[in-house]
Amino acid sequence: MTITYEWRGEVEDAALDALHAGGFGYPAGRGQWRERLLRHSLGWVCARRDGRLIGFVNVAWDGGGHAFLLDTVVAPDHRSHGVGAELVATAARRARAAGCAWLHVDYEAGLRPFYIDACGFRETAAGLLAL
Asked: pTM (2 decimals)?
């Protein structure tokens, strides 16, 4: 079946929570995704197959030229088939269309091949302060 990608697609808290719990290995129950997305995001991309949410990425922004990828996740049974790369490509196109000049992403070392090789990001120096 066909996988569809939708910018600012309809998101049910329970479905997105379950996708993230499965993708990141934490218990479901964080909820209230929709409210946070509407409040803080430029947009988000949903990937669906047969109506099932199988992928997601959030695009936060500063209200100007900088957008930030957050919460990129693909259901384990759909990984390594290009779903994540298409989520990111769609997010990049939409951020560019909104006038953003930069798309930032932070990632763990093991995700370097995905973001650098598959998605075309380049490495930069960055800082992080645990709060």
From this structure: 0.92
